[in-house]
Design brief:
Butyryl-CoA Dehydrogenase, subunit A, domain 3, 6 helices, binds 2-acetamido-2-deoxy-beta-D-glucopyranose
């Protein structure tokens, strides 16, 4: 192999490495902005969640907001099936099941709101998207509050916090795009 070829390979590698770094920096930069705006969101949770979607590697801020809203829909949907399971659990009393039913309607609203937010972000209606995502991040906490008052919030604590945090990530990215 002659030196020109070796040089070309080295240069290509350097460019490739640099572009990989730039791409990575985007998720990390957005997560720094998000966690600065909302200290309740954990930086590592933010990076891990966004990177779980393979599209995040080449996404700009708007696409990252859509990814975060999409994760919110997926998470609320999986929480709804967990609530269904709890509602079918004979060891859980009927008063608690009444609260879980309310949580279920909160989470259905999260699915609707975060899905509308995806459409709003895509069409550039950031104000609408922000409103929908605020609802999506508040609702799981309303569920947590209900269950907490009854001493039962351990049932959905992780779900409530994860879903709120995912919606907050989307909301804070959108807020910056407004
Ligand atoms: C979320 O992303 C997946 C994968 O691209 C897609 O199939 C799904 O329809 C999206 N969900 C929403 C609510 O847009
Ligand atoms: C949603 O939250 C649950 C915790 O309830 C978590 O285990 C799961 O990984 C999350 N799903 C997504 C798609 O982020």
């Amino acid at each position: 192999m002659d030196t020109t070829k070796v040089l070309l390979i080295l240069i290509s590698l350097a460019i490739l490495l640099q572009s990989l770094e730039l791409v990575d920096a985007s998720v990390e930069d957005e997560c720094k902005i998000v966690t600065a705006a909302d200290p309740n969101v954990d930086y590592k949770f933010c990076v891990t969640s966004l990177q779980a979607d393979p599209r995040s590697g080449s996404a700009d801020a708007k696409e990252l907001a859509i990814i975060a809203a999409n994760l919110t829909v997926a998470n609320a949907t999986s929480t709804l099936s967990k609530i269904e399971k709890l509602l079918g659990d004979s060891k859980i009393d009927s008063a608690t099941k009444g609260l879980l039913n309310q949580c279920s309607s909160f989470y259905k609203d999260v699915v609707t709101a975060a899905s509308s937010a995806i459409k709003a972000i895509s069409s550039g209606s950031m104000g609408d998207a922000k409103k929908q995502l605020t609802e999506a991040s508040d609702n799981p906490q309303d569920c947590d509050d209900l269950l907490f008052e009854a001493g039962k919030n351990y049932l959905l604590k992780k779900e409530d916090n994860d879903c709120t945090n995912l919606a907050s990530i989307a909301q804070n990215i959108v807020a910056k795009l407004q």
